[in-house]
Amino acid sequence: MTVKLALVYYSSYGTNHQMATIAMEAAKAAGADVRLLKVRETAPAEAVNSQAAWKAHADATADIPEASVEDMEWADAYLFSAGTRFGVMASQMRAFIDTLGGLWSKGALANKPISAMTSAQNAHGGQETTLSSFYITAMHWGAIVVVPGYTDEVIFKTGGNPYGYSHTQGAEFSEDVKSAIGHQTRRLVEMAAKLA
Fold first, then answer.
1. Are 91 and 83 a contacting pair, CB within 8 Å?
2. Using CA atoms, how far apart are residues 148 and 30, in angstroms rounded to an integer?
3. Where are the alpha helices (H) located in the chain, listed in sequence order?
4. Interatomic CA distance for residues 165 and 167, integer angstroms
5. 167/154 Cα distance (integer angstroms)
6. pLDDT single digits (tens) 13-38
7. What's the burial of 100, exposed, middle or buried (CB within 10 Å: 0-12/13-18/19+)?
8. Which of 63, 94, 103, 181 would bridge with 108, disulfide CB 3.0–4.6 Å?
9. How buried is 138 (Cβ within 10 angstroms: 0-12 exposed, 13-18 middle, 19+ buried)?
């Protein structure tokens, strides 16, 4: 069976987009059918346009489709990636998740594996609590949380976060980072295949 993976991200400046792209490549290499999807920008256009890097990233990713309820229903598994804002996921991601009440109420999100990644400006900027905020939502759905844990030594090489990969803004996307993201993604795809 081919696992259908919805890879849903939000990125202001490109960090989470890059993480999602690395994950997409790993998922495809693992044989998954992948939809790379961004969530709708909810910040006012004047805010986006007032910051050159934010506007440049929005323009560069304009062709990536926005995540929909239909994408979530299609998928067998979910990998989310969004920046940390004050210790929880960015509001743009939360706004998307809040549109899924209809799917939740009919059980369409239950029993599907989910994993999450995040980034923050500094190493102690709330990454773990942000990942927890994804997983608390997943528990309400009845989804199955799949974390990397300490199942590969590369987790220790990239900060030791067992809840999901977390990136410090501005840090290099080294081979170890790519390996950690790839490991988490492959683990999610493997668990989805076992559950199918």
1. no
2. 16
3. 15-29, 45-49, 52-60, 69-74, 91-97, 101-105, 127-141, 154-157, 175-195
4. 7
5. 14
6. 999 999 999 999 999 999 999 999 99
7. middle
8. 103
9. buried
Which tokens in the block code for residue 196? 């199918």
pLDDT tens digit sequence for 80-121: 999 999 999 999 999 999 999 999 999 999 999 999 999 998
Report whether 15 contacts 119 (CB < 8 A): yes
Position 31 scores a pLDDT of 97
For residue 36, give both structure tokens. 């790379």
Q: Which whole-number Å values give the CA distances from 182 to 109, 140, 149, in the listed order?
A: 24, 27, 14
Q: Strands 4-10, 113-120: parallel, antiparallel or unpaired by DSSP?
A: unpaired
Question: Which tokens go with 194?
Answer: 């076992």
d(CA 70, CA 138): 18
pLDDT mean over 190-196: 95
- Is the pLDDT at 8 greater than 90? The verdict is yes
| Pairing outcome for strands 4-10 and 88-89 | unpaired
Q: Are 11 and 83 in contact (CB under 8 A)?
A: yes
**CB contact set of 152 (below 8 Å; sequence gap of 6+):** 179, 180, 183
Q: Which residue carries 């998740």 as its tokens?
A: 97
Please give the backbone phi and psi of residue 186, each rounded to the nearest 5 degrees, phi first.
-60, -40
